[in-house]
Write a structure and sequence with these properties.
Elements (H helix, E strand, L loop, with lengths): L4 H11 L3 E4 L4 H14 L3 E5 L7 H14 L4 E8 L2 H10 L3 E4 L6 H17 L3 E6 L8 H4 L7 H11 L3 E4 L16 H10 L4 E3 L7 H9 L2 E6 L1 H14 L4 H22 L7
Parallel strand pairs: 1-8, 2-3, 3-4, 4-5, 5-6, 6-7, 7-8
The chain binds zinc ion.
């Protein structure tokens, strides 16, 4: 069934587990993600972004169709929306939620732009995720790790003034593959969790380590974004299968992606939470 990620995440926060938000970039990834959720009897959030997809609106429509037929709750979220127009396209295309990413703007400008789009999204019952602080890139982890960690007091003010539904925070993760070993600031997570009553989101789940992710989802993170690890697992499954043609390769990619996602769902404590 197609639902917004917001009630999904509110329940996760209240009960102390995390919900996986796999990045999907084509039909096979969508089927893999939904199949993983059905096998684990758990909700899932399909993250779709302009960076990874040829046509976000068209893929969103396909995802919507597949989500409606699913036996578990499925949300469709625009990941890292950076343009006003893109957010409107996604809302019109039937996305249940949007992430309005203005995390690289100054505090006041971030608030102003996010508040604007939140008002529009809420008028048509679309949920909004936004980011305060900035989750950087793993390939320059040494520089990005501490560059813009989320301040707990500012996070509280940010949520109140923007009216958003869930907050992405920077506590030491990074996007893509890490150069170096990731270390998370759990004290910061606890401080933000105490001040902010909204569900908290962790970007850059890939390569962060099972122990870190299990701890984070048990101590206040309600949504974990995953991309690199899933795509790599899919690719590895195709290589390991020894398949020699494009037709069957996609099946192996889908299976590898699905199995890796199920690993994370078990890790986050979300099994049987549908
Ligand atoms: Zn992200």
């Amino acid at each position: 069934m197609l639902v917004s990620m917001i009630p999904m995440l509110q329940k996760a926060r209240a009960e102390g587990y995390g919900v996986a938000a796999p990045s999907v970039n084509n039909e096979d990834a969508i089927y893999g993600a939904v199949a993983a959720a059905e096998e684990c009897n758990t909700p899932v959030i399909l993250d779709i972004s302009f960076g990874l997809t040829r046509n976000v609106v068209r893929l969103g429509r396909l995802a919507e169709d597949i989500a409606r037929d699913a036996r578990v709750p499925v949300a469709i979220n625009q990941d890292h929306g950076r343009e006003f127009e893109h957010a409107i396209w996604c809302i019109r295309a039937g996305f249940t939620d949007i992430m309005v990413d203005r995390s690289q703007l100054p505090f006041e400008e971030n608030i102003a732009q996010v508040a604007d789009l939140t008002r529009i999204a809420h008028a048509v019952n679309v949920g909004v995720e936004a980011e305060l602080g900035h989750v950087g890139q793993g390939y320059q982890y040494e520089i990005d790790r501490d560059a813009a960690l989320t301040d707990p007091a500012m996070a509280k003010e940010y949520c109140e003034r923007t009216g958003i539904d869930c907050l992405a925070i920077a506590i030491g993760t990074a996007h893509g593959e890490y150069k170096g070993t990731p270390y998370l600031d759990f004290d910061r997570l606890h401080a933000i969790f105490d001040k902010v009553s909204l569900p908290l989101v962790l970007h850059g789940g890939s390569g962060t380590g099972d122990e870190n992710l299990a701890k984070a989802t048990h101590e206040g993170i309600s949504k974990v974004n995953l991309a690199t690890d899933l795509f790599m697992a899919g690719w590895q499954a195709a290589l390991d299968s020894g398949c020699r043609d494009g037709r069957t390769a996609y099946r192996h990619i889908e299976r590898g992606y699905k199995e890796k996602l199920m690993h994370f769902m078990r890790l986050f404590g979300q099994v049987n939470k549908a």
